[in-house]
Amino acid sequence: xxxxxxxxxxxxxxxxxxxxxxxxxxxxxxxxxxxxxxxxxxxxxxxxxxxxxxxxxxxxxxxxxxxxxxxxxxxxxxxxxxxxxxxxxxxxxxxxxxxxxxxxxxxxxxxxxxxxxxxxxxxxxxxxxxxxxxxxxxxxxxxxxxxxxxxxxxxxxxxxxxxxxxxxxxxxxxxxxxxxxxxxxxxxxxxxxxxxxxxxxxxxxxxxxxxxxxxxxxxxxxxxxxxxxxxxxxxxxxxxxxxxxxxxxxxxxxxxxxxxxxxxxxxxxxxxxxxxxxxxxxxxxxxxxxxxxxxxxxxxxxxxxxxxxxxxxxxxxxxxxxxxxxxxxxxxxxxxxxxxxxxxxxxxxxxxxxxxxxxxxxxxxxxxxxxxxxxxxxxxxxxxx
Amino acid sequence: xxxxxxxxxxxxxxxxxxxxxxxxxxxxxxxxxxxxxxxxxxxxxxxxxxxxxxxxxxxxxxxxxxxxxxxxxxxxxxxxxxxxxxxxxxxxxxxxxxxxxxxxxxxxxxxxxxxxxxxxxxxxxxxxxxxxxxxxxxxxxxxxxxxxxxxxxxxxxxxxxxxxxxxxxxxxxxxxxxxxxxxxxxxxxxxxxxxxxxxxxxxxxxxxxxxxxxxxxxxxxxxxxxxxxxxxxxxxxxxxxxxxxxxxxxxxxxxxxxxxxxxxxxxxxxxxxxxxxxxxxxxxxxxxxxxxxxxxxxxxxxxxxxxxxxxxxxxxxxxxxxxxxxxxxxxxxxxxxxxxxxxxxxxxxxxxxxxxxxxxxxxxxxxxxxxxxxxxxxxxxxxxx
Amino acid sequence: xxxxxxxxxxxxxxxxxxxxxxxxxxxxxxxxxxxxxxxxxxxxxxxxxxxxxxxxxxxxxxxxxxxxxxxxxxxxxxxxxxxxxxxxxxxxxxxxxxxxxxxxxxxxxxxxxxxxxxxxxxxxxxxxxxxxxxxxxxxxxxxxxxxxxxxxxxxxxxxxxxxxxxxxxxxxxxxxxxxxxxxxxxxxxxxxxxxxxxxxxxxxxxxxxxxxxxxxxxxxxxxxxxxxxxxxxxxxxxxxxxxxxxxxxxxxxxxxxxxxxxxxxxxxxxxxxxxxxxxxxxxxxxxxxxxxxxxxxxxxxxxxxxxxxxxxxxxxxxxxxxxxxxxxxxxxxxxxxxxxxxxxxxxxxxxxxxxxxxxxxxxxxxxxxxxxxxxxxxxx
Amino acid sequence: xxxxxxxxxxxxxxxxxxxxxxxxxxxxxxxxxxxxxxxxxxxxxxxxxxxxxxxxxxxxxxxxxxxxxxxxxxxxxxxxxxxxxxxxxxxxxxxxxxxxxxxxxxxxxxxxxxxxxxxxxxxxxxxxxxxxxxxxxxxxxxxxxxxxxxxxxxxxxxxxxxxxxxxxxxxxxxxxxxxxxxxxxxxxxxxxxxxxxxxxxxxxxxxxxxxxxxxxxxxxxxxxxxxxxxxxxxxxxxxxxxxxxxxxxxxxxxxxxxxxxxxxxxxxxxxxxxxxxxxxxxxxxxxxxxxxxxxxxxxxxxxxxxxxxxxxxxxxxxxxxxxxxxxxxxxxxxxxxxxxxxxxxxxxxxxxxxxxxxxxxxxxxxxxxxxxxxxxxxxx
Lengths: 385, 385, 380, 380
Hints:
heterotetramer; A: alpha+beta; Butyryl-Coa Dehydrogenase, subunit A, domain 1; Butyryl-CoA Dehydrogenase, subunit A, domain 2; Butyryl-CoA Dehydrogenase, subunit A, domain 3; 3 domains; 8-stranded mixed beta sheet; C: alpha+beta; 4-stranded mixed beta sheet; 4-stranded antiparallel beta sheet; 12 helices; 10 strands; globular
C-alpha cells in the first residue's frame, strides 16, 4: 500500500496541466458551449501530443494515468476537458479485444486524432444493465447485416466509427449471442438523429441512431460472439472511472475558482473566505473531493492491474462514478452559491461547470443503476421466499 | 501508488480478527457496557499477544497496522474493541519524544499491559486548538510543580500515567513554554473526579482532573520545553486516525449485522434485503465506508512516512476522523433502522455500536474543530481588510 | 404563526398538569429509569387529577375534552424528557378502540377504570416475526361457545408490564383472507395463562415497561371482542391517523425542547476566547434546525386542526410521521455535535432525548412503511 | 390542508389569466428565451387585462384586489416555466415602493402607467461590489436645488433592459452613518445619462432582461424622491417581507410543478421490463420530495395568511425564503436524477426549471444572509 504517485505519473499530470493551461481559452469555451460545438483544433493538438487515449498507448491499460489527465483537463475547463477526453470513447474495446487489423485501421487513427470513436450500447426503453439488447446482426458469408435502434449515443454525428452492441444470429435465426461490432459512419443504412440543445457538456454531441440493413464485414467483430456483454461491461467500468475523473476535475476547478473569489471579495468588511461558514464549506468540499478521488484512483488501479484477467471488482468503478458525480454536483453547486450573483453569470464559468457535472451525473450509467451494481455484489443472492 | 495491502499487513489483520472473534464475548460486552467497566482481562491478553500499541513496536511508527487492528476489533465489538485500543493512549508521545529512561519505565509497561496510559490536554472552557493552556509547571532544581485543571481525560481513574500538557515556568514566572510532562497517578496532589454514566463507549472511563502542587522529577518531561504544542498536535493527529479506524470498524460491524438480519428476515413475503430501497441503503453504506477507509489509510500512511520529519499533512487525520465518524454514525443509525424494533433492543448490539460511534464523533477533537484544521490550511492567511 | 386555539380551560388544564409533572413526575424520573418502569401509583394519580383520557365524556368520569387536551398532555410529558409514563399511548391510542368499538357493557365496565387510572392499557399487535406486516400475524383467537381461546406471543408492547387491560389483535386460523381474519379483543391481565415478560433492555425509553406478552390457551369471554368478528384490520386502519398524529405531535415538541436547551447551553459554554454561541457554524446549524422545527410545528398544528374536524388526512399524517420522527432524530444528532463532550454524558438531557426519540421512526409503522403507504396512495 | 381561501372572483381572475398565458405567453417562450427578453407588448397586454398590480385600487386603474391575486399570478407564471415576464417583480416588489412611499403627485403620475403596462419597473439596489451588504453601496445621489444628481452603477437588475422606471437606492456621500445615508428615487429610463447594459448571459432566466444600469451625472427632479431623505434603508427593510414572501410562493409552486411533471414522465418511461415509476427507490424519492413540498406549501400558505393580516412574520418569511429556495433546487436536482438521460436535454422542462430556480437562493438576499438575519433575531 502506497499513496504516493510515481515519478512518471507526476510527469503526466504536469504535462496535462501545462497543456490545458496553455491551450484552453476562456472565451473559446464560452462560445463553443453556447454554440454546441466540439473543440476540433484542440482535440487534434492534444492527440498529437499523445494526450488523447494515453492509457491505450503502453504495454497494458494505464487508466490511472488517464485519470490524472482527466482531472487536470477538466479542472482548467470542464467542457473543453470533457469533450477532448471523450473523443476516443470506446477505443478501449479495440485495445482490449480488437484484432490486429481493427487496431491498425481504427485504433491508431483514433489515437492520432484523425477520427472520433464511440460506443452505441443502450436502446430506447432498454434495461440499464443491457440484458435486453434487441439490435441484431445476421451473419451471411463474410458479412453481417445490422438492424436496430440505439439512443443517446455520445459523439453521435462526429464519430467516424461506432462500436455497436448487438446479437449475432445465423441466417436461420439461431444464436443471438451478444457481440460488439464496429460500424463505420459512412456505411449505408446508418442513420444519425442528433439531439441538440443539451443542458450541459454541450461540446459533446449526442444522437439517437438507427441501423437499417447495415452491412459490415465479419472482420469488424470486436472479440468473439458471446463476449459482447462482458466487453460492454468492461468498457462501462472504464468509462465510469473516466467520467469520475472528469467530474472530479470539474469539482477541483470550481473549488479553485470559488476559493479565489471568496478570498478577494468582501462582505461586511470581511473577506467571504474568512467567515466560519464559508471556511467549513471549503473544508467539506475538500474532504469530499479527496475521498472520491481516492476511490477513483483505486478503481483505476484495480482495472489496470486486474481487468485483463477478468479479476477486477466492477463495483469500484460504479462507486467511483456515483460518489465523484455526487461530489462534483455538490461542489459546483456550492461554488455557484459562494460566488453569489456572479456565480449565476456565464462569465464566471462555475455555472457551466455545474451544468457539465450535473449532465454527467444523470446520463447513463448513473444513479440507481450504479447503486444496483454495488448492491448486487454486496448482498448477493437471497434464497427465494 | 498501490492500493493492495502488503503480506505482513494482511497477517496482522488476520491475527486481529481471529483474536477478536475468539475472545470477544457478546454477553460480557453487554454487561460491561451496562456496568461501565473496563475489560481488564481481555486487555492484558491482547497486550501479551502484542496487539496493544503494535504500531509502537517496530523501527518506526506503523499506524497503518494499528488502523487494520482497530477496524477488526471494533467490527467484532465496538465497545470491547475501542476500550482495549484506547488502553495505551498517548504512549505515542513517549515513543516519539520520550528519552530512554521514560521509555523503559513507562512505555514498556504500557505495551506489556501492566498499566494504562493517557493524555491530559484539554482544560475547562479552553480553546479546542489548545492555544490557551493555563496549567503550569514551575521548575525548581530537578523538580517540576504542577498546578491546573484538565477535563474529559480518557481512561481517567484507570491510567497509571498521564501525559500532561502544561507551561513550564522558571521560578520567577518567566518562560511559560508549552511542554508535555508525565505524571504518575500515585503522585500526591493528583485529583481525579470520574464522570460516570456515559452515553457510549461506556467501557472507557473519563474523568476531570486537578493538579494541586503536584511534584514530578524534571526527567519526566517528554521532549523539551517549547515542543509541547507540536507534540500534542502530533499525538492528536495519531489519535484522530486511531479513532477514525475504530469508528470505521464499528460501521463495518453494524453493516455486517444489518446485512445478516435483513437477508434472513421477511416482510410482505420478501427478504428485507431484497427490497430496492434496502439494497440501495447498503450500497450507500458500503461506498461511504470504503471512501472513509481510504482516507483513513492514507492519513495513517502519511503519518508513518512523514511525521518523524515533521512533513506530514495534519489535515488528512482531521479529514479522516471527521468523515469516518460521520460515516459510522450514519451506518450504525441506518442499521438500527434496518433491524426495526430489534435494532432498538440491547440484545441486537447495533444500538450500542450506534451510541459508541456517536460518542466518539462528538468528543474532542471533533466536528467544527476538525473542519477548522482543514479550512485553515486550505484557505491560508487572508490579507486583513 | 399559530393555528390551534387553546381556550382558557385548556390553559388551566395545562397549568395543573405542569404543576403535577413538576411535583409527581420530574423528581422520580431517574429512579424510574433505573427500575425500568414507572409505579402504578403515578398512573392512579394522573387519573385522580383527570389527566388520563381527557376526551372521554363525564359519564365515564372524563372531562369531555378534545384532542387539544391530548396535545397538552403530550407536550408536558415531552417537557419531562422521559417516556415511562406513556399516558398518550393509553389515552389516545388504546382507549379509543374501546370507546369506538366496545359494546355498551364493555364501555361501562372499563372506560371509568381507564379514566381513573385503575386500569392501564396496552395495545398488543406487533409480533416477533411480523412487524408492520399484519398479514404475517400468527397469534390465534378461536371462538368456542361463549369464550375465545387465545394462543400466541406479542412483542415490543408499550406499558407491557404495567398493563391491566390489553387490546389484542388475533387471527381466526380458519379465515384465509388475512384482511378478514383479524379481530380485536379486550384481555385483562389477570386472565389465567396470560403471561408478561420482563421489561426489555432498550436503547432508550428506559422507564417504559416495554415487554413481551404470551398467551397460552388463554380464555376470555366472547363479549370481550371489540366490534365485529374479522373487522380488526379495518379498525386498526381507522385508528392509525390518530396514532401517527400522536407521534407527530410528540416529535415536534421534542425538537423544540432540544433546541431550547442546546441554545441555552451554547450561550453559557466558553470555547477559548468566545462563547460557543458565537460560532457562525453553530448559529447556522441552530437556524437550520429551528427552521425545520418551525415548519414541522405549523404542519403539525394544521394536521391536528384537520384531524379535529374529522377530516381524512391519513396521507399527510403519514408524511408527518416519517418526516418529524426523522427530524427529531436528526435534531438530536446535530444538537449533540454542537454540544460536544458534555453530550457524551447522560447528565446532558439531550443524550437521553437522543436515545428516547430514536424509536419514533420505528414504532407505529416504520418510516419505510410510511413511505410505502404514501407511494401507494399518491403514485398509482 | 388548505389555509388560503380563494373567492369566486379570485378564481375567475385565475381562469382569465390561465387563458391569457396559454394564448399570449406559452407559445412565445422559446423565442423570448433566445432573444433574452420579452417584448414590451406582452407587458402591455398583461396590463390591459388587469393582471399587473392587481392590488392597486380603482383610482389608479387597478382592480383593488389583495395578495391572493399576486399568489395567483405567481402560480400561473410558474406554470409557464419561464421567468422573462417577471410580473411579480413589477407588481409585488417594485410598485409597492411607489404606492407606500410616493407623494400624491408621483402616485397619480406613475401608478396608472404601472397598472396599464405602459411602464415596466425595476428596483436598482445591488451593486457590483455590494451584494447583500447595503453599507458598501457606492452609488451617490447629491441633491442640488430642485434636482438630484446620480452617479454610479447597479447590476443584476431584473427587467433591466425593459424598464421604463427604476426605484433606485443611492447614498448621500456626505452622510457617514450608512443606515441614514440611503435614499430611494424614481428614475425614468429616458432620463439623459441613464444607460442600460446588454442583457447578462446567465445560467437561467434566459428570457429575463437582467442587466447593468449606469448613471453618469444623471439628473432627476428632487420630487422624485420616495419618502424622506435618508430613510431608504428603513423603506427597503419594510418591504423585505413581501419581497421574500414572493420568493417563497414561487419556489413552492415550482416544486409542485416539477413533481407533477416527473411523476407523469416516470409513469410512461419504460426501463427494461418495468416502468420507471415501479422502482421502489424512485417512489421513495418522490414521496420524500412530495412530503417536503407539502410541508412547504402549508408553511407558505400560513405565511401568506399572516402577511395579509399585516403581521410581522419577517423571521418566519426569511426561514421560508432560505428553506423553499433550497428545496426547489434540491427538488430539481433530484428530479433530474430520476429522469436520467432525458433530463440532460433542454427539451425536458425540468432542465430549464433547474437552471431558472437556481438563482432563487441567491437573489433577494442570499440564503446565507437569511440565516444571518434569523440568527441575529433569534439567538441574541
